[in-house]
Amino acid sequence: MSISEIKIAETETEKAEIYRLRYQLYIEEMSGGRRHTEADGAARQLHDESDEHAIQFYGRQDAG
């Protein structure tokens, strides 16, 4: 698969997807729970106060 487009996350849904991916990578796969105390285990999201002002970019993959 290749990335078909790079977008800016503008909606809360898009941002939540990014925060869930961060949680999966940094907390679950890299066992970073002790380093990332700002992680929200109930929502399975990782974000902090800098995200309120940051521009979030993400890539979408082609289905084919």
Task: Label the structural class.
Answer: alpha+beta
Helix proportion range: 25-40%
Residue windows where pLDDT falls under 50 for at least 5 positions: none
Could you give the distance between the termini? Answer: 7 Å
The Cα radius of gyration reads 13 Å
Principal-axis shape equals: globular
Q: For the largest sheet, list the strands in their spatial order.
A: 1-2
* Helix count, DSSP H or I runs of 4 or more residues: 1
> Could you spell the SSE succession in H and E letters?
EHE
Largest sheet: 2 strands, antiparallel
Please tell me the overall pLDDT: 91
Instruction: Tell me the domain tally.
Output: 1
Strand content: 15-25%
Summed up:
The chain is of the alpha+beta class and 64 residues long. Helix content is 28%, strand content 17%. It has one helix at residues 12-29; strands at residues 3-8, 57-61.
Secondary structure: elements and pairs:
Elements: E1 3-8, H1 12-29, E2 57-61
Antiparallel strand pairs: 1-2
